[in-house]
Amino acid sequence: MSEVIVITSGKGGVGKTTTTANLGVGLAAHGHKVALVDADIGLRNLDVVLGLENRIVYDITDVTGGHCRLRQALIKDKRYEGLFLLPAAQTKDKTAVSPDEMKELCEELRREFEYVIIDCPAGIEQGFRNAIAGADRAIVVTTPEVSAVRDADRIIGLLEAAELRDPKLIINRLRSRMVRQGDMMSIEDIIDILAIDLLGVVPEDDMVVISTNRGEAVVTDERSRSGQAYRNIVLRIKGEAVPMMNLDEGGLFYRLRRIIGLK
Amino acid sequence: MLDFLNRVFGRESNGSKKIAKERLRLVLVHDRASVSPQLLQTLKVELIQVISHYMDIDEEALEVTLDSNENQVALVASIPVKGMKRPTRTMASGI
Description:
The structure holds 2 protein chains of 2 kinds. Helix content of chain A is 42%, strand content 16%.
C-alpha cells in the first residue's frame, strides 16, 4: 500500500530537494500522510527549503544510531496536516548510515506513512546507495543541460542495476523560449536520449527562489507556473492522467512588456 | 534595431541544441560501453558465432572496439581470417 520513492539525479543542483519538498507538500495537501527523508547527510537542505530548520532536535543518524526513537526525530510541519520531515545530520557524512539501516528505517516509516519520499544526495557513492536502499521506485530529475542529462543517464543505469526498474523522469527548469530558439534541448530530445517515461516538466520560475527564500513550497502558490507543474506531477503520482500544461513563457506582448520593463 | 526585433519576435539563433544533442549521443555511447565492458564481450562472442558460419577465424586475435572522432562513433572489429568455408545449403537459409 505505502510507497517509498527516491528522488535522484546524479548531478547536483538540478532540483531534487525542491522537488522532494514540493511533492511532499503537494501530496499532504491532498490529505495523504507523507514522510520526507533528507538523505544528504553532511549537507542537509530539505529542512531549510521547507522552512523547518529551527525545529530540528534529532536527525536520521540519531535514529539509526539508537539515540532516539523515530517518532522523536520526525518533525511535524504545522502548516500541512500529515507532512513530516526526518532531517539529515549536518555534522557527519554519508558513511554515518548504511544501506541496511536505511532499508530498516524505510520499513518502519512505511508502516505509518502512505508516501515516503527520500531526497537523494548528488553523486553515485554511499549517499546514493543509502538513499535507494529502501526505495520501491525512483524519480530521476534532470535539467535540459548536457552535463545533467549525462549524469542522469549514469544514474538510470545504476538504478536498473539495483533492480529499481522503470524510473520516471522529471525535467526541471525548462525554458520554452530557449527551446523555441533552438538553444535548449526539448522534452522530446531528452526523452529520446534517456528513454524513460516522463512524469512531468517544471518550467524555470523565479517563484522557486522566492518561495525558498521564505521557506515555503511553490506548489501551494496558485499563480506560480512551477507550482502548477508540481501540482500536476502530484496528481500523476496518485495515478491520474494529467495533460502537460502549457509551458510557454508567453507570446509577443509578454516579451514586449518584459523588454520595456513592465512585468 | 535588428537585435531588438529579434528579441521581440524570438527568432532562431544559432541552434546550439543540435550540437548539444549530438555530443551527448556520442558521449553516452562511450559512457554506456565503459560502464558495461561485458556488453562488448558478449557482442564479441556472438560475432564469433555468426562469422564462424562463413569463415575460419582466429578467435583469440579478434578485437572489437569503439572508435570515435569528432562527429561519429564506429564499432570497429578486426577479425583475422584463417580460411573460407565452402558454401552449403544451410548458409543460404541463414542458419
